[in-house]
Amino acid sequence: MALAVICTTILLIVHPAMLMDMKKTSDKYGPFKIGKVESELCHGPKLLDQAVVSAANFRHENDVILATFSYNVTEAAKMNEIKITVYNMKDNKKSIMWNYKLTEPCKHFAVSAALTQNLHMKPDSCIAKVGVYNFDVNVSDAVHKFYGDSFFYGDYMFKLVSLSKNGNLGCMVMRQVFEKKD
User: Fold this and answer.
1) N or C: which end of the chain has fewer CB within 10 A?
2) Model confidence pLDDT, tens digit, residues 74-133
3) Beta strands 93-102 and 81-90: pairing type?
4) CA-to-CA distance for 45 and 131, rounded, in angstroms?
């Protein structure tokens, strides 16, 4: 699944929650660039894995962050929900900012395009068909489309788990640093 796009999109969705504890001062908010991106694959909460993200490669090219994914669906399944947890990272400690649950991901305004374009899911059925799906995501472009040119500086971690009724359809932890733009 276009996990980078979904994680980035979810940060947009939870943006109002982040505003509660942050003030828009020039040392905390303004034009930004993404300084560092790290990701790791994880195992979802269910025993059965119906799909696996087998590669997630992030790379910087001319101040642009690109990600390449390989998503291997081993058993056809309906994606019933996506669970997202957003953390603020400080001094290598994470504090939870927000939990978010999408119950109809293929109809959700923020993630439906990523699912239909990259995994060829239909909005009404939201079924992941067996196969290997390889795709690229311009993370920098996606982040700036959603947030515009200004956002809160900081280190954020997102855990995204996509689930069917019977199993896991993917799990990824992504960490992004939003830095002040030079």
Assistant:
1) C
2) 999 999 999 989 899 999 899 998 898 989 999 987 788 889 999 999 999 999 999 999
3) antiparallel
4) 22
Give the containing element (helix H, strand E) for 157. Answer: strand 154-163
- Residue at 53: amino acid letter: V
Please report, for the domain that includes residue 117, its CATH number.
2.70.220
Q: Is residue 163 part of a domain?
A: yes
DSSP β-bridge partners for residue 69: 56, 135
The helix/strand/coil state of 107 is helix
The amino acid present at 130, given as its one-letter code, is: V
Q: How many structural domains compose the chain? A: 1
What's the rounded Cα separation, in Å, for the pair 138 and 149? 16
Q: Rounded to an integer, what distance in angstroms lies between the CA atom of residue 105 and that of residue 177?
A: 26
pTM of the predicted protein model = 0.78
Which of 71, 73, 46, 45 lies closest to 56 in space, CA to CA?
Answer: 71
Cα(102)–Cα(25) distance, rounded to whole angstroms? 32
Exposed e or buried b for every residue in 66-77, given b needs 16+ CB within 10 A? bbebebbbeeeb
Strand-pair partners of 150 = 31
